[in-house]
Specification:
Layout lengths: L14 E6 L10 E6 L7 E11 L1 H8 L6 H4 L12 E9 L11 E5 L10 E5 L3 E3 L6 H21 L7 E5 L4 H12 L3 E6 L4 H6 L4 E4 L12 E6 L6 H4 L3 E9 L4 H6 L4 E2 L4 E6 L2 E6 L6 H16 L7 E6 L3 H9 L6 E5 L1
Parallel strand pairs: 8-9, 8-11, 9-10, 11-12, 12-15, 16-17
Antiparallel strand pairs: 1-2, 3-4, 3-6, 3-17, 4-5, 5-7, 13-14, 14-15
Helix pairs in contact: 3-4, 3-8
């Protein structure tokens, strides 16, 4: 797609298309509607959106599941009706104070809790926007950011993966798991991936030294030992995985279930937003990676894009849908069978 050039000859449309939900519920609550065309403020940019991730978290926000999610998203109705936090596209316009971006640049935006990416056009702070390196397709950049921005802090900071680390990733074919497998293998870990039958070859291609088909071999039947067990989908527990851990090993999870919160006794560790508790020489922990400072999250995405440009990792795209078919994309995410990232292509 050729880069648009700034011109006053082409009028800016008065409206754009967004997909919004004004009540909680099944995928069908997502509807396409018209909205005013965004205008860049002094330190903002407007993007023509080319790809936006549909994450498991956004599906949970849409459904208000679990109900406690309403504390963040709105008690009675969605506070932010337009979802979408990982967005790729081209810069359409820049504010007067923006000097590092220009119209036509291919970029990635992380809007965080503000969301807004399920749209044909998006206004975002310039500080939340990064150029996408040449050679990295925009859809893959979005997919890598969606899973990698969670996986990288777990693998690098909390698992402290180094050459020889024995790491088991449960949910190795999902967006977070696929990124975790690649990042850990890149750092020299001996990675075992757990996934369903359909995704065994994918996980092996991402760098896993061995792959376990969860439909044939449950976690309880594995022997270990592993230095780290990372549950990237929240379907296991410390109790189920404790026998897999070497002495001093760690069980990490990305999903804040009641069990892990009780076991860790809600004791924060100063090194990042991590909750950890000692359990007989082994530890169980959960990290809230989305609560890190925005600058830290953006620095991680920049690092991921650099790794992708070098060929060390890649974004895994499962399926794509047009923007107006966001409900179908959410229905697929709700099945729990996706591999990598689901995208909307406006």
């Amino acid at each position: 797609m050729p880069a648009p050039s700034p011109s006053t000859d082409t009028p800016t449309p008065a409206t754009t298309t967004v997909v919004a939900h004004h009540r909680y519920g099944p995928p069908e609550v997502l509807v396409a509607e018209r909205a005013p065309m965004p205008v860049a403020g002094a330190d903002e940019v407007v993007l023509a959106v080319e790809a936006v991730a549909v994450s498991r978290a956004e599906a949970a926000f849409r459904a208000a599941r679990p109900a406690v999610a309403r504390l963040a998203t709105g008690l009675l109705r969605p506070r932010r009706p337009v979802l979408g936090g990982d967005v790729g596209g081209r810069v359409l316009a820049v504010g007067a104070g923006v000097t590092h971006l220009r119209p036509g640049d291919r970029v990635l935006a992380q809007t965080g809790i503000a969301m807004g990416g399920y749209a044909r056009h998006l206004r975002a702070p310039a500080t939340a926007v990064l150029p996408v390196p040449d050679g990295v397709p925009t859809p893959e950049a979005v997919a890598l950011a969606e899973g990698g921005s969670t996986a990288l802090p777990f693998v690098r900071d909390h698992a402290r993966v180094r050459p020889g680390t024995r790491l088991l990733v449960n949910g190795a074919s999902g967006a977070v798991g696929a990124a975790a497998v690649q990042l850990a293998a890149h750092l020299g870990a001996e990675v075992t991936g757990v996934c369903s039958t359909d995704h065994v070859e994918l996980v092996r291609s991402l760098g896993a030294a061995s792959v376990v088909d969860r439909t044939r071999t449950p976690l309880e039947a594995l022997a270990g030992p592993y230095d780290v067990v990372l549950d990237a989908v929240g379907t296991s527990s410390f109790r189920r995985c404790r026998h897999l851990l070497a002495p001093g090993g760690s069980y990490l999870t990305t999903v804040p279930g009641a069990g892990i919160l009780v076991r860790t006794a809600l004791r924060p560790v100063l090194r990042g937003p991590l909750l950890r508790g000692p359990l007989g020489g082994r530890t169980a922990a959960i990290a809230f990676t989305g609560l890190r400072p925005a600058a830290d999250r953006l620095a991680d995405v920049r690092h991921l894009l650099d790794l992708a440009a070098a060929g060390a990792v890649r974004g895994v795209v499962d399926r794509t849908w047009p923007l107006e078919e966001a409900a179908a994309a959410h229905a697929y995410v709700d099945t729990g069978r996706k591999a990598g990232t689901v995208l909307l292509l406006p």
